[in-house]
């Protein structure tokens, strides 16, 4: 069920969002160390990712869109933490906000919607990996009850340098 403010609607992601979601993600691929992907994707390449987030179940995709124009302002996902069966009650969550849409509470709207959607699922923990430094993401995760559990030092190399990744966890 869609939710949000008069300005922003938060809803499940659908196939019609694929091109805009791909463009948003590619911004982070090409311009930031926030994701450790290093090559941009085509919508066709991102389609399996989109389809891995149905409207129900533990792996969700929530999209924030401008209520009038339907421009994608960001998205949040929950996905598998690890592939082995014993990890099935854990998810990894993430939020991406469109360039220029930061500071409007989009990340909070997305996480509120995501965690509301996950409340009825058989889940025990959510994890988030945050490339460092990223104070805005650390504050967002703290607001949602995540606590820092450790940092992998220089775990990823992008843009000719190594980056640390802080890990956060939240009981569900």
UniProtKB/TrEMBL annotation:
Q: Which domain of life is it from?
A: Bacteria
What keywords were assigned to this record? Acyltransferase, Transferase
Q: Name one Pfam family in it.
A: Acetyltransf_1
InterPro entries reported for this sequence: Acyl_CoA_acyltransferase, GNAT_dom
Would I find Transferase among this entry's keywords?
Answer: yes
Q: Which organism is it from?
A: Streptomyces violaceorubidus
Q: What is this protein called?
A: N-acetyltransferase family protein
Report whether Acyltransferase shows up as a keyword of the record. yes
Domain called N-acetyltransferase: residue spans: 8-172
